[in-house]
Amino acid sequence: MSTHVTECETPPPQHVKEETANKEKEKESEKILFSCTAYLFRYKKEQKEWAFRGKGEFKVSQDERTKKHRIYLIREKIFKFGCNHYITEDLVLEKYDLEEHCWMWTTCGDDCGDGLGAVQKFVAKFPTEETAKKFYDTVNQVKEGEDGGEDEAAKDEKDQVVMGEKDEDEKDKKDEPVKSEKDEKDKDDAAKGDKGDTNEDEKNGKDNKNEVVKGDKHEDNHNNDGISRDSSTN
């Protein structure tokens, strides 16, 4: 009588299920900005030498929920972090001249879960110059465009304020010629009014002068008549 034993799969513990579910959620909320296969090295300060950290998928990503960006590498075969930290304003990429297609940087917030410490210096070696440049451009675009994780709402609000100020300036510039034209017209009207008053005064003065002349002339005629009459009497 043969006995056949069927192996039953043991269900994973509850904490494994929860960890798997959390990783899936993180993956769904993650936006990949850069990805390639790369080699990673870590500087060992005590020994003053570079140590090979691992080869794997090297990525720059953004968390859709928090809008924060991070750099991380998943090591092949063992599937552990080689590096894992956020992109901050003080992160600076420097050329590593001893190798081609390499960038070097220091982070104060690395968290790989292996107890090595948060302050780490890394060098990543890329397969081509193009991928190395793309990594450099991606990191700097994140720093310049998002300021280390500025959310879209704050960015939109900032843009609206700038646009509002710009529209206000354009409106002021548009109103200035209208005001200038109005002021110029008022000035011309005032000048015309002053000129009209002057002409009126001159006219009145001329009329008064004519009346005086006429009066004098009438007086002279009267005197002449008197003289004629007197001379005829003699």
Would you identify the regions where 5 or more consecutive residues have pLDDT less than 50? 1-21, 147-154, 219-234
Structural class: alpha+beta
How would you sum up the major sheet? 7 strands, antiparallel
**Can you tell me the CATH architecture of the domain at 25-150?**
Roll
Q: Find the CATH topology of the domain at 25-150.
A: PH-domain like
**Beginning-to-end CA distance, first to last residue:** 193 Å
Widest sheet: strand ordering: 4-3-2-1-7-6-5
CATH superfamily of the domain at 25-150: Pleckstrin-homology domain (PH domain)/Phosphotyrosine-binding domain (PTB)
Task: Spell out the key features of this protein.
3 helices, alpha+beta, PH-domain like, 234 residues, disordered C terminus
Characterization of this structure:
The chain has helices at residues 14-28, 129-146, 152-233, and strands at residues 30-44, 49-63, 69-75, 81-86, 94-95, 102-107, 120-125. It has a domain at 25-150: Pleckstrin-homology domain (PH domain)/Phosphotyrosine-binding domain (PTB) (PH-domain like), CATH 2.30.29.30. It is an alpha+beta fold and 234 residues long. The radius of gyration is 47 Å and the shape is elongated. The longest helix is centred in the C-terminal third of the chain and has 82 residues, at 152-233. It contains three helices and seven strands. The chain has a seven-stranded antiparallel sheet with strand order 4-3-2-1-7-6-5. A hairpin with a 4-residue loop joins strand 1 (30-44) and strand 2 (49-63).
